[in-house]
Design brief:
Length: about 270
Amino acid sequence: MAANRKVSETGQASTPVRALRLGVNIDHVATLRNARGGMHPDPLRAAHLAIEGGADGITAHLREDRRHISDTDITRLKNELTRPLNLEMAATDEMLQIALRHVPNACCLVPERREERTTEGGLDVQGAAKTLKPFVAKLKDAGIRVSLFIEPDIKTIEASSDVGADIVELHTGRYCNLALEHDAAGVAFEIERHRKAASAAASVGLEVHAGHGLTYNTVQPIARIPEIVELNIGHFLIGEAIFGGLSMAVRRMRVLMDEAREALSAQRGR
Ligand code: PXP
């Protein structure tokens, strides 16, 4: 991985700062597509654009109820992506078979409840250790890196190491919600919690990622935690893409409509 050498305030070279990767989660392109059925907008096309924009990898969550990403999306992403695919999934037998069939670069195991709108909390690694340990081993045996989506909590980090995970992804949702509520004390507390968790995870050899709810306003305090090497960001980016692209899309439609009318006028004038 590329490393930028950071010079400390005393002018001496300090520990190199590791590059921070961006995984773009494209689930909500599929949410929009599924609102109408059909193929538009295509998550694979969105994935290519995200890579063009600087994404280091693509994340997709295949939910049990297939509410956004579909099995076909996973096949196409796996076959056609030029960057690593991070498959988010629940630790179920069905998902294990799918992961073993596709062998993505990484699997991020997340808790899943059918009635939730999004992944609302981290995995209960201690409680599920007995089933998680063999599950993680099967994925790793197939050459898949395994990440656990967890709350930034020291006991859960210890348990993640015990079940053999390669990576922990810290759930930043609570921090982001407090930031939305302008709760400065809560935000400071949560950042400190992430700092300690990231340091503890790295000290036991776990790679540290983070994500959930991150926006332009909340990303930087998390990006300044040195042990974190990857952020996974989805909903905000897909929403923001509407504002970056809507005016251009409307302009193109305007041109096509006006051209058609001009052609009609020319025809009538003949
Ligand atoms: N990381 C994990 C493990 C997630 O489950 C999600 C949401 O699917 C994200 C990151 C991205 O969260 P958001 O869409 O809020 O940016």
